[in-house]
Amino acid sequence: MTTSIDPPQVDSERTVSVTVNGVHREATVPVRRVLSDFLRDDLGLTGTHVGCAHGVCGSCTVMVDGDPVRSCLVLAVQVQGAQVTTVEGLARDDHQGGQVLHPVQEAFRECHALQCGFCTPGFLVTIAAGLEARDAAEEITEEEVDELVGGNLCRCTGYANIKKAVRHAAATMREDAR
Amino acid sequence: MTTKLFGEPVRRREDARLITGRGRYLDDIGAGALAAAFVRSPHAHARVLDVDVEAALDVEGLVAVYTYEDLTGPMAEPLPVLIPHPQLHAPRTGYPLANGVVNHVGEPVVMVVATDRYVAEDAAERIVVTYEELPVVVGVDAAREARAAVHEDVPDNVAARHHQETGDVEPALAAAPHTLSFTQYIERSACMPLEGKGVHARWDADDASLRVYSSTQASTSVRAAIAAKLELSLDRVEVIAPDVGGGFGVKIVHPWPEELLVPMAAIRLGREVKWAEDRREHFISSAHERQQRQEITVGYDDDGRITALDVHVWHDNGAYTPYGIIVPIVTATQLVGPYAIPVYRVVVESVFTNTVIVTPYRGAGRPQGCYAMERTMDRIADDLGLDRAEVRRRNLITPDQFPYDHHLTFQDGRPVIYDSGDYPGLLDKLVALVGWDEAGALRADARSRGKMLGVGMALYVEGTGPGPYEGGHVQVLGSGKVLVSTGLTSQGQGHETVFAQIVASELGVPIEDVEVHTGDTRRFGYAVGTFASRAAVMSGNAVALAARGVREKAIRIAADVLEANPEDLEIDEGLVQVRGTPGASIPLRTVAVLSNPLRYAFDEAAKQATQFAKAGSDDKPPVAEGDAPGLEHRDYYSPIRSTFASGAHAAVVEIDPATWEIDVVRYAVVHDCGNVVNPMIVEGQVHGGVAQGVGGALYERMAYDADGQLQNASFMDFLMPYASEVPDIAIDHQETPSPLNPLGIKGAGEAGVIPGTAAIASAIEDAVGRRITSMPISPTELYDLMRNETAERTQASLQTGVPA
Amino acid sequence: MKPAPFRYADPRSLDEALDLLSDETGAKVLAGGQSLLPLLAMRLAAPATLVDLNRVPGLDTVEATGDGVRVGALVRHARLLRQTPDAQAAARVQPLLARATANVAHPAIRNRGTTVGSIAHADPSGEMTSVLALTGGSVTVATPAGRETVGWQDLFVGPLETSLAGGAVVVDAFFPALPERSGTAFAEIARRKGDYAVCGAGVVVTLDEDRRVSAVRASYISVGLVPEVHDLTEAVAGEPVDSADWAAAGALARTLVDPDTDIHASADYRRLLVGVLTERTLADAAAEAVQRSAA
């Protein structure tokens, strides 16, 4: 009755191939490895931080096929073949040997939206994904700002400057969209 | 002019790496290191009868297992009592790994080292520890009543009795026209940085040296502790605090067991070992703070002026006292706030409970003290039918009373003498900022929407920047780069920026040329640490003094070369020049080259330098007596005592009388930390502090059950505020420079959190007309209070018939 | 906080999945994983094998018909909140689903977690269990023996416990359409926005042709061990919708529920909220019923 050609594989270990920040990466890992550990320990991308390991703080948020998800709540084997974007992949190559920061990265610096910086990658990825998914030409509403920052914990900033940075980044993207 | 940098909202220099994922936090270091995990006590109080590791031994990837039996020398002794105090009569500390008894859930019993953390947890899970449970003491009342003993040899559970008085309180109370007495409680929260603790250790057998990275607030002291406990010479140990993902106090405690055990394992195994604390571990084996029972009696006159204050604090210090009684001393001495209290007596009894240790959390005893004092002010106002702002105003220390001596002894052993401030000014600004006098209109508007509205305020004075010292080192390289180092650590306060602003301003160089390093014992060996709002005051002034030393030397060398009078020279934009004589100048980087008489022309800078080199006198050594090669200077700042910052907060709350949900709809802060180095960073500190204050007032508590199990040891159930729970904050500034230090600054790190609980309690009480005597308060508790027929009502509510 | 060892398979068909579940002892289904992964990290669950449904085709559809909305096992919460034709159709047929879904956690969780997974997880604090109950819904369960429909009453046995056998896969959930002349509403009170609710309420109000109240039903979250539906009709039966005494319905609801005390709220407080939320949501649901009656 099975429709696939090969019998289903039940594995303790798998080779995971994934495109991270536009680069093909591959590593063989135990199947219990969560994506956050895979990115950090197997691929050396330590920009993604683990703040709680149970899906509440949002520090480990990365994009999987464009959508922000908690990388501590996804197994590495589950992203086989997917496109993953981490904080290291938010800036764009300027083709002159440097990088152009994403507007939300610029805004975080400009608005002092980070202190210790530990939760910052999760906020940046979540906000970048959210801003890219909306119509940049539209002025951002306070409801949208609240939604974009509302699911991540920060213990340092009290959030005021993070919200300010979202408005700032949205304004920049609006300018660029014109 | 570069000197403008001081006081400017300069954008942070640390951000470039942190926003691109290039920060280096503890767990980002040492890829491939062995991982440590711990078997921790599941019981709050028990004897350890047996540890059976057998089942763990066949876990593939297991490298080592350590129990107390494996500890030798000083490691087998109790952990140090870092800050002994004569009145801490029964100090107790645990062992790096439990020695026969465990006194709280989470206490480490066994350390497992394996190829990675997954495997280490597999092995830890298989280790069987047999316990005999003992009676458990949870909560300050259970401890106070000695329902059981935490430590067998301390049957009353009292670790310390601390006592200070400024006069004869009993006659003063007897003579007071009015007195009132009340008891109130405040509960536990915790620092809860987003990054837990962590340690990485690497032993270099060839060099016989140890390098340790720790997510700490005090790398120099961790170094000393490791050297002492592992019997290494201090020069064989280096400790580095990398990027640290928040501290708020919990990382000032040292040595944590893991800070000793991980290096121990690294040495024994000859391999890198790392431990990155997970969230559950952080909840049950780090530190908490805030729980106190406060019994207060106050005497006052018809105008509401306090004539005598008598406070008895029962302070829960948890299972052990590694950090001494700093927190309750801070409560005792900072309680008086901005007020002139003619006679004050405070007795603190610090008691053991079978819970996680209590050590400083941002505010470090001040939020509790502020809560005691400010709620007292509210009571007096209510009793006399006076405006709460007016009662406070009448009791304030006035600007002409500075320096104001409270005749108390502060946590640093120095007198509590306020150096400067303008407390009536703060209050006036606060009243205007929050619209205190228009509260009636706000109340009416809320009532029309079916809501109950209340306003509350709280003032505080915060001793900041305690000694004994911090140091700074400034060095100008031949490249023009200015290296600045100081020993204290950073956890997000922006030290790389602030200290660079100070040095750039003092030295007259572009900030881009300045590079700041903190918390690295390889660069600076003497330091105290980052706590007590002391970094800007202590290291800020130290690096300023060091920069002035460099400046003086640079001018001396340049004057020689330019054949100018040193008094005529200035440094601006990295150029030493004769004031008013364009062209007569020499770059600071060239001066740096000239400062070292060994000048092989291995680069352009050195070649350039040679053209200025004068033929030295054959009679003098190339390095003059008392001089040293290089353009650098090291200096220390050591204050006579703390400098006292101050502030005033007000909260406006709306309460839904159907659901008893509490919403902080307006929050106002007036803040005085003396001269401000970087207002953007200071405001950021205030924002973060206020968020923690709101959290502590309405959301966060450590929910222990009677068995000493922490029921909410996760971010799901320990309710740290998200953005949705934090109100918008209006901030106004006042600057009363400190006369105690060269830069005139006072600390700003902790201030934002201090008055939150007091101000919000006051606002809720104002809204509902019932006494709030325990904080934090949640909607379910407010509901219980409102339907409790015997709950005390405020006089104001009885007179005005506030709906309740 | 690292999961204990397990084995993993990601079958490419439902039959493969069912085979694996019956062949492997201690096997557990993985779909969105947003409830399971925290349990694994805390080692509160330690399945021997995870059978990941994510690569099984055909489970990611949202079908709205006149009868109701059928949501496949791999449909993420976020999908029901998007402005796509299938989600919009679902919201017209049974508006309660999207309304409740908007209260589920935070966006990053909704991007991964599934409606069906929430139901199979059977957490009485979750929104979806209550929605299934209130709408009179059911799930389609596949076992090696075939498919069967299990109504919500037969599904929920206790907190985090369903009647389903270990080898079963819930392939979809079916939420019957909102009846004619009916309106619905959902509200919850959480300590922090996005948290599991301290108390939540979903209600359905049905009017007769004269705009009098003919039926009122409610279901609550974080109240009781399993989702229940309470009939509140008697409190307001026959009353004109514009002057119905919703407070009376709320008062009745308070007498019907049996909530628990935990660290976030007492049983009494939850009962209070049941009353308040019932009254508030009924007013909104009635407005919708009026609107839909007019249409």
From TrEMBL, chain A:
Claim: Manganese is one of the keywords in the record: no
Keywords: 2Fe-2S, Iron, Iron-sulfur, Metal-binding, Oxidoreductase
Stretches assigned to the 2Fe-2S ferredoxin-type domain: 14-90
Pathways per UniProt: Alkaloid degradation; nicotine degradation
Pfam families, sorted: Fer2 (PF00111), Fer2_2 (PF01799)
PROSITE patterns, A to Z: 2FE2S_FER_1, 2FE2S_FER_2
InterPro entries (alphabetical): 2Fe-2S-bd (IPR002888), 2Fe-2S-bd_dom_sf (IPR036884), 2Fe-2S_ferredoxin-like_sf (IPR036010), 2Fe-2S_ferredoxin-type (IPR001041), 2Fe2S_fd_BS (IPR006058), Beta-grasp_dom_sf (IPR012675), Diverse_Oxidoreductases (IPR051452)
GO molecular function: 2 iron, 2 sulfur cluster binding; metal ion binding; oxidoreductase activity
Claim: Oxidoreductase is one of the keywords in the record: yes
Protein name as catalogued: Carbon-monoxide dehydrogenase small subunit
Species for this entry: Geodermatophilus nigrescens
From TrEMBL, chain B:
InterPro entries for the chain: Ald_Oxase/Xan_DH_a/b, Ald_Oxase/Xan_DH_a/b_sf, Ald_Oxase/xanthine_DH-like, AldOxase/xan_DH_MoCoBD1, AldOxase/xan_DH_MoCoBD2, AldOxase/xan_DH_Mopterin-bd_sf
Every Aldehyde oxidase/xanthine dehydrogenase a/b hammerhead domain range: 20-135
Coiled-coil features, chain-numbered ranges: none
Transcription in keyword set: no
Domain of life: Bacteria
This protein's record includes keyword Oxidoreductase: yes
GO molecular function, one term: iron ion binding
NCBIfam families attached to this UniProt entry: CODH_aero_grp5
Organism whose genome encodes this protein: Geodermatophilus nigrescens
UniProt keywords, alphabetically: Molybdenum, Oxidoreductase
The name this protein goes by in its record: CO or xanthine dehydrogenase, Mo-binding subunit
Automatic annotation (TrEMBL), chain C:
Domain FAD-binding PCMH-type, first and last residues per copy: 1-180
Assigned keywords, A-Z: FAD, Flavoprotein, Oxidoreductase
Any Pfam family the entry gives: FAD_binding_5
InterPro entries given in the database record: CO_DH_flav_C, CO_DH_flav_C_dom_sf, Diverse_Substr_Oxidored, FAD-bd_PCMH, FAD-bd_PCMH-like_sf, FAD-bd_PCMH_sub1, FAD-bd_PCMH_sub2, Mopterin_DH_FAD-bd
Gene3D superfamilies, alphabetized: 3.30.465.10, CO dehydrogenase flavoprotein, C-terminal domain (3.30.390.50), Uridine Diphospho-n-acetylenolpyruvylglucosamine Reductase, domain 2 (3.30.43.10)
Membrane-spanning residues: none
Keyword Protein biosynthesis: no
PROSITE patterns the record matches: FAD_PCMH
One example GO MF annotation: oxidoreductase activity
SUPFAM superfamilies xrefs: CO dehydrogenase flavoprotein C-terminal domain-like, FAD-binding/transporter-associated domain-like
PANTHER family: XANTHINE DEHYDROGENASE SUBUNIT C-RELATED
Stated name of the protein: Carbon-monoxide dehydrogenase medium subunit
